[in-house]
Specification:
A: alpha+beta, five-stranded antiparallel beta sheet, 5 strands, B: alpha+beta, two-stranded antiparallel ribbon, 6 helices, disordered N terminus, disordered C terminus
Amino acid sequence: MKHQVLALLLAATSAAYGADWEFDHLVRAIENHYGVKRTHIPLMGAANFVVKVVRPAGAGGFKLALFEDFRGGADYRDQVELDRFMENACKGGLHALVVTHSRSGGESSYILAGEIGKNTRMLIATFERDEATVVEAQVNVSALLKAIGSPDEARKTYQGER
Amino acid sequence: MRLVTIALAAALMPLWAQEIKLPANLEKLAAKAEETVDVSLDGSMLQLAGRFLSDQDDGQAKTKHLLSGLESISVKSFTFASEGQYDAADVDSVRAQVQGGQWSRIVGVTSKKDGEHADVYFKDGGNGTLGGIVVICAEPKELTIVRIAGILDPAQLADLGGQFGVPKLDMGVHIGGKKAGK
């Protein structure tokens, strides 16, 4: 019985750790692969607090990484390369639910989700010509389904319009 | 007019979703497309999501009921800068997969003026249910293919539009005497 409880505890812990790891891993992967550094965002802690209190669209908290010196491409080869990069970077804990590419807008967006539960870690990664953003938010299922139905709206809600 | 469509549905067999294949040429359209949208939701994701929706909230309860029978949802949409970027024969090869047997084309709209074609195919799931839906919307500069697997009550058709990346159904569809959506 002890072993079963321990196994369950370990599984739960590793699942939670895995989801956290995905965000940090993706941020590091972008830094390494594209040779960029995430931009320090002043008062990020306060922003997180506001999100936790206000809970927009069912979000309970979030992590944000902004890469202002990202230099991606808008053509098809760049976007295929991005797809490959995201697939490799998110192996394991996350599933790509929505992928959008706009060559005219030079933008690619990925909505990914970890293990589905009462609260699910949703990750939205957006790559533009000169900027990349990764947001991880704790959302309820209703908010997750809403994001899937309106990926552009979700990107604006969680990453802000810049 | 922009023809937009829906697809919902059901496979009596778990492997139904794999039965409808996109030709390789269509998969390669992303190289020519100005914009692409790819939604891919598998059965385990949909079932898990359904478990965490509330029965008390009307909207969530409706979605929960809807998800209970679904096995997968896949939406692929390509928007092109100019006409003639995709081959009609490739689209026909998708249509050929949903003709005959348990499949029926419920809606077929062709606009010669605008060069637009919209087709909605339903698979009979037996006992008055749908067993699968495929929607093909081919416009000169846009191509959308929606594939949904799972058991679905025809009355739920309207609820699927606008959710999960499935476009809203903007045409009346009558199945078994029930108006499915508009």
